[in-house]
């Protein structure tokens, strides 16, 4: 009943390659979604993201709620128009950010009271307020407000948290259904829309085709307990969402446990709806999770690492500040087709980074995103051709090789 916006076009083992149709264009899956916390991928202009082939970006409701305010963005026509991004957007609900403010928050049934990390002002988020904020922002995919379970958490704590998330999910869905069609771009008159779309030649602003509503995804919690994960999945599916996210992972647990929890959850999700694993991962992790049947992932790793001079390449990870690159005239990654690798040398990138130049972050981020997007492109191709297992072992062997000469991250 929900799958008119998601088509699976090829399968290889548990992995699937498909197409997610949003009000702002199609997204080929499995997809890695770059994180644009404050309506910007730090250091990268939107035209570069378009050129890199980014089809969907993530933005953080918590941060935009505090600054500049979701109501301000709504009045300016919504997040797409505010940031001049006509392709798809996903917003998280703010649950994870509020959870990370452990000393500044109070959780109760109604919602979460918290102090802003900016100025200490008191705020309140609830399932209804978080959903209203995401409707005001107008992202194509919005997330239910959840309680991200702490790690480590005992069984009883994880159960109570999971049950709260389930009750909140019901409230989010109810609010969403009562306010469907209120996204700012739904209110834009057709004249205004024509003016706005003629400004761009991306050809990706297709309000008139595909899915023309926001989509609400539910979030599975349950801590590191396989049976609670299963129960959370079953209860969330029973409430009924257009897609399902696995939340509360990548919060400090060992990687084997992350994988175990993903594997414990996936069999209980509908096979024909999108599955989103929140907050992962390294290049080899995103390939592994795609192989398990995950369709969407996001992580600050490629962009944050880039700003710290840590670059992912086909030969492994490298720290550009290392003295060995001072006179290296070669490209950052000889196998990368991005503009940075085509134009600049390792020596120049090292010089920019060591000199604290702004351009270092710009170029490093563009390359790391190119590397991640290219990895996902190759995953989709491998699924299409039925070669995913071979691709996975190739990625794993690079990852092993790279750890041998991995540079100090500090
Ligand atoms: Zn590159």
Number of strands: 16
- Helix/sheet category: alpha/beta
Mean pLDDT: 92
Secondary structure: helix percent: 40-55%
Bound molecules: zinc ion
Shape: globular
Distance between the termini: 50 Å
Please state roughly what percent of the residues sit in beta strands, choosing from under 5%, 5-15%, 15-25%, 25-35%, 35-45% or over 45%.
Answer: 15-25%
What does the largest sheet look like? 8 strands, parallel
Strand order of the largest sheet: 4-14-13-12-11-10-6-5
Radius of gyration from the alpha-carbon trace, in angstroms: 21 Å
- SS field, number of helical segments: 17
Low-confidence runs (pLDDT<50, min 5 residues)? Answer: 189-209, 403-410
If you had to describe this structure to a student in words, what would you say it looks like?
The protein is of the alpha/beta class and 410 residues long. Helix content is 43%, strand content 17%. It contains 17 helices and 16 strands. The protein has helices at residues 46-52, 61-66, 70-75, 79-82, 95-100, 127-137, 155-178, 184-187, 190-198, 226-239, 255-265, 283-292, 301-307, 339-343, 346-354, 358-385, 388-404; strands spanning 6-12, 15-22, 25-29, 31-33, 56-60, 88-92, 105-107, 112-115, 122-125, 141-143, 215-220, 243-246, 275-277, 296-298, 310-313, 316-319. An 8-stranded parallel β-sheet has the order 4-14-13-12-11-10-6-5. Strands 1-2-3 form a 3-stranded antiparallel β-sheet. Strand 8 and strand 9 (122-125) form a beta hairpin. Helix 10 (226-239) packs across helix 11 and helix 12 runs antiparallel to helix 17. The longest helix is centred in the last third of the chain and has 28 residues, at 358-385. The radius of gyration is 21 Å and the shape is globular. 50% of the residues are buried. The structure holds zinc ion (ZN). Residues 332-333, 336, 338, 340-341, 367, 370 line the site of zinc ion (ZN).
